[in-house]
Design brief:
Elements lengths: L3 E6 L6 H15 L3 E6 L5 H4 L8 E5 L12 E5 L6 H8 L6 E5 L7 H5 L3 E3 L9 E5 L23 H6 L10 E5 L7 H8 L4 E5 L3 H9 L5 E5 L5 H10 L2 E5 L2 H9 L3 E4 L8 H4 L1
Parallel strand pairs: 1-2, 1-4, 2-3, 4-5, 5-7, 8-9, 8-11, 9-10, 11-12
Antiparallel strand pairs: 6-7
């Protein structure tokens, strides 16, 4: 039997948090680990994982963790979601305390190397006596690295066949571009630039898709609205395109594994915190 992992995730708005949590759960289960994924909203899994929940993973409602009597061996608190106090209290009385990990957001800022692996002893509250450690994903040996499934880079994609399965075909001289973006006032200018050469634009669901539908681009640009794709399907989309526009954290990393040129739209924050991160 593998180690029992407890993954806690709150779904905020853009599905990035649950996207990372689901990738982590899948990867752990594929390595023989047992995972319980506690979610406050699991509706995104209907399209993110349409094939269902694989062996080794249990998806459970967040509220049920208040009654769970046996916390597992490793507890992962994703993106500062704050564990339920009742669950933390039971962690504290476990004969062998679980490893408690706070999984942070990806960044290349200097503090990440200083902070990765630091411990936070709990001196008060329901977790008194426990020790939380910070896990910072990153790009250097002094960080936690990035999620990548074994063998991912050795799996070439038959891009024409993948497109054909979706009723799409590259026309002679045409480039294929994917767009997964937040709402952006510069989108009309981007479409005009893409229209200068024959381009098939594959647009993921969300604000950008709604914007383009209202703009009705023309010229050398034709576009196709995509449905929500599963995680493997989204990864294959990035592999099938010549250029990818991505947003947030999960698709930013997946665009790098795809190995094609890409443009990243960082999540804009009102206080400007995205500037130093960018």
């Amino acid at each position: 039997m593998g180690v029992q992992w407890e993954l806690f995730c709150r779904v905020i708005d853009n599905f990035g948090d649950i996207g990372v949590a689901w990738r982590l759960a899948r990867d752990l289960a594929a390595r023989g680990q047992r995972v319980r994924l506690w979610l406050d909203d699991d509706s995104a899994l209907s399209w993110m994982a349409p094939e269902g929940v694989p062996a080794g993973i249990e998806v459970l409602p967040w509220a049920a963790s208040l009654r769970e009597q046996q916390p597992g061996d490793v507890v992962v608190e994703t993106f500062g979601c704050d564990l339920p106090e009742a669950f933390v209290a039971r962690m504290a009385v476990r004969t062998v305390p679980p490893q408690w990990i706070n999984l942070e957001y990806l960044s290349a800022e200097r503090y990440v190397e200083r902070s990765h692996g630091l411990s936070s002893p709990q001196f008060r509250g329901p977790g008194q006596g426990l020790n939380k450690r910070f896990f910072y994903p990153g790009f250097t040996p002094r960080t936690g690295g990035l999620l990548r499934e074994p063998g991912l880079l050795a799996q070439p994609l038959d891009a024409p066949a993948w497109l054909a399965q979706r009723g799409l075909q590259r026309r002679p001289g045409e480039r294929i571009v994917s767009l997964f973006a937040y709402s952006n006032p510069q989108l009309p200018q981007l479409l005009a630039e893409l229209a200068r050469e024959p381009t098939l634009l594959l647009v993921c669901p969300g604000a950008a898709q709604q914007q383009i539908a209202a703009l009705q681009p023309s010229g050398g640009l034709r576009w196709q609205a995509l449905p929500y794709l599963s995680q493997p399907g989204f990864d294959q989309l990035l592999q099938a395109c010549d250029l990818n526009f991505v947003r947030g954290e999960d698709s930013f990393v997946r665009a790098q594994w795809a190995g094609h040129p890409f443009v990243w739209q960082i999540y804009p924050q009102d206080d400007g915190a995205h500037g130093p991160k960018l």
